[in-house]
Amino acid sequence: MRVLGVDPGLTRCGVGVVEGVAGRPLTMIGVGVVRTAVDTELGHRLVAIEAGIEEWLDEYRPEVVAVERVFSQHNVSTVMGTAQASAVAMLCAARRGIPVALHTPSEVKAAVTGTGRADKAQVGAMVTRLLRLSAPPKPADAADALALAVCHIWRAPAQNRLQQAVALHASKGRPS
């Protein structure tokens, strides 16, 4: 499975592609950041993020796009920017018919470090170890994007089995 992880943000939108299957060593295919200038008009920033994500989709052809689920923070303007960048990533994937998976920050941290309260340094260190990299990806947004992809690869088989079980249960409860 090839997954494009997206750590959404208006100034730095982390992107990372990981390939592999649960239970086997994973491989980093690419990592980077789509950047926009703070002083650029919002609409133009969103267009730049779209163009950047489209380039990643063209180059790496992921089977799934894993995006960090936006969560409530104290700074409303930060949440809005993150949500807008997240929506752009989801739109780009949906336009191509690529499935989108959302994972919360605590899910991702728990998947790669064993605790949902890990800090950015711990996530970066574990991504480095799990993907056998020589150094943690910089900036942290890039490491977070790789962590999202790893999380999805590891969690997808269990999520698929759960969805199949729910669908089976629902179909047995329907009148014929």
SSE topology sketch:
Blueprint: E1 2-7, E2 12-19, E3 27-35, H1 42-60, E4 64-68, H2 76-95, E5 100-103, H3 105-113, H4 120-130, H5 140-173
Parallel strand pairs: 1-4, 4-5
Antiparallel strand pairs: 1-2, 2-3
Helix pairs in contact: 1-2, 3-5, 4-5
Commentary on this structure:
With 176 residues, the chain is of the alpha/beta class. It is built from five helices and five strands. The chain has a five-stranded mixed beta sheet with strand order 3-2-1-4-5. A hairpin with a 4-residue loop joins strand 1 (2-7) and strand 2. Helix 1 packs across helix 2 (76-95) and helix 4 crosses helix 5. The radius of gyration is 17 Å and the shape is globular. The model has no long low-confidence stretch (mean pLDDT 93).
Structural class estimated from helices and strands = alpha/beta
The stretches of 5 or more residues where confidence is low (pLDDT under 50) are none
Q: Please, how many helices? A: 5
DSSP, total strands: 5
Report on the biggest sheet: 5 strands, mixed
What does the oligomeric state look like here? single chain
Give the terminus-to-terminus CA distance.
Answer: 37 Å
Strand content: 15-25%
* CA gyration radius, whole angstroms: 17 Å
**SSE pattern:** EEEHEHEHHH
What strand line-up does the widest sheet have? 3-2-1-4-5
Question: How much helix, percentage-wise, in residues?
Answer: 40-55%
Shape: globular
Arithmetic mean pLDDT: 93
